């Protein structure tokens, strides 16, 4: 891990809802590619990402920083500047295609059908406008109502996200809020239009541990009430275990493993996922030696040939010939569990995990 | 908030008092013979004594300052050539060369200078912020490059050269003169138009660059991304969210820059013949008219301190985070 520490998955408390392959996805991403032309060359930020997410389900996207988690999610919101980003593939939200949508349609879509909360609530709220003002602006962008009505709605939302004294708080500025309260206000603002898709990009990374837990509970709670689909970006595997139904592990702009959270955290099948789990500091018991993944994530200007993970992979020699260096593996279904897939040439990765990785885990 | 303003007013007054004492020391106690200069070559000893007495040069230094301050607060009487005239507060002495009380001279000059400085500021802030905002939005395009290029050309021109060229060639503009605003607002505006444009255009160049840089930074902030994610129009994102935050650093620069604008007014007033504080002080300097010089410095510092105070108070309205300061 570069500069982040991953927390150990606690006992998986949440039993993932059974997955129904026929369930209509609300968000459907197909072969998404995002590239940024720069003076140094083309940054391949996302390289063919596909996933489906039905309502009432939470997908966790994990991976080291720079793996394309934020860039892919900003694409879902239609937030990339078309002058600086090249986007191909398809993103369907509620049946509507987002890639190539006009700016005017995007304005209608953003905030109403899909909303996003960001990592740092301090910098993500405008310092010069009151909390109420900022929530009202979101509401009035999609509802033709009076200021009075919008303010009532803002107070109602602040109350809903657990901010005490909402009548008074509504006319305060962000600097008068604590970090946790600011993030609650961000959530209130995101949910004010009752969007069916919520994207949370590392919403608890900038917060204290105790506040983190409260915010996670709040998001899970609100999701139950609002029945929305949630994409939850994090590098904290402990959080994943608590909040997600599905998990998508990203490495260098690619999905390397994807499937139900209990299955994947219980028995990951990709060497990169193993590396993530091994680099978690043990929370209990004897201090264990950590095994950080050797090396650093590759530059997205020159992604390695073959499997992008091969320069850091300790199992590449188990694969016959030069395959890992020359051929990029496909993200293929794994028959071991239903509904999971991984991108690796290794034969019988489940056996490798059971015999070699599991004993090493803290 | 009130306490903050009060504190600022007190510190503003103390700055003016310090300026007063310092300039007093510099002008009145300098080893020169102002009375002799004022009196001229055909001077009688009686007249010289008269002038010295009226300037209080015959008294000890501390008493001189005391009398000056007393004049400022309650006014005083002057006896010149056997005639006693009352000089009401705030009295800053009497100008022998112009034959008028200094207070009256300054009262005529202050509105001229303030009109030039404020009118010019309106022009350069409007042009600068508009051009900077547009350039920032089209960053890297030809439009942006042309804007930045022309600001560099304008900014590399010495101001007085530019002003002289305008005075010489821009004859299609209305003739420069000063009419008090209350007398005839239209004549006031048209008489100052050339000076405003001159101050405005030259300074607009730097304000375009400040605004552009500030706006580029502001548009890259997280809260602008949040604003976009809400589904409000692009226009609203840029002007309500981006520009609002970009204005604060520009206001800070403006507050500091005002001091230089006041100094620069000397050029503007001289070139366009507008009778402001700069011109008055410049003449007084050449003629050893100490009371006028003293008054000019005092009023200059008072104007500067007041303008800074106004900018600082405006600033607390711009940025809610400093309100409690
Ligand atoms: N506007 C941009 N121009 C060029 N490169 C970018 C841009 N935005 C993101 N990137 C690059 O894309 C990669 C993925 O970034 P990101 O999605 O933010 O990673 P993370 O998984 O940490 O969220 C990074 O290498 C980043 O430098
Ligand atoms: Mg990120």
Describe this structure in words.
The complex is a heterodimer of chains A (362) and B (325). With 362 residues, chain A is of the alpha/beta class. In chain A, 31% of the residues lie in helices and 20% in strands. Chain A has helices spanning 69-76, 103-109, 121-124, 131-142, 147-160, 166-169, 179-191, 209-226, 237-243, 261-266, 271-278, 323-326, 349-357; strands at 25-38, 41-54, 58-62, 86-93, 96-97, 114-117, 197-201, 229-233, 246-251, 254-260, 332-333, 341-342. In chain A, a hairpin with a 2-residue loop joins strand 1 (25-38) and strand 2 (41-54). In chain A, helix 4 (131-142) packs across helix 5 (147-160), helix 4 runs parallel beside helix 7 (179-191) and helix 5 packs across helix 7 (179-191). The longest helix of chain A is centred in the middle third of the chain and has 18 residues, at 209-226. Residues 1-5 and 8-13 of chain A have low confidence and may be disordered. In chain B, strands 1-2 form a two-stranded antiparallel ribbon. In chain B, strands 3-4 form a two-stranded antiparallel sheet. Chain B has 2 domains: 2-89, no CATH class; 103-318, MetI-like fold, CATH 1.10.3720.10. The model of chain B has no long low-confidence stretch (mean pLDDT 87). Chain B has helices at residues 2-28, 34-39, 45-54, 61-74, 102-137, 142-155, 159-169, 185-219, 222-229, 234-272, 277-286, 290-318; strands at 76-80, 83-87, 94-95, 100-101. Helix content of chain B is 74%, strand content 4%. The A-B interface holds A 77, 79, 103, 106-112, 115-116, 118, 120, 123-129, 137-138, 141-142, 173, 175, 186, 189 and B 221-223, 225-234, 241, 244-245, 318-321. Magnesium ion binds at residues 69-70, 201 of chain A.
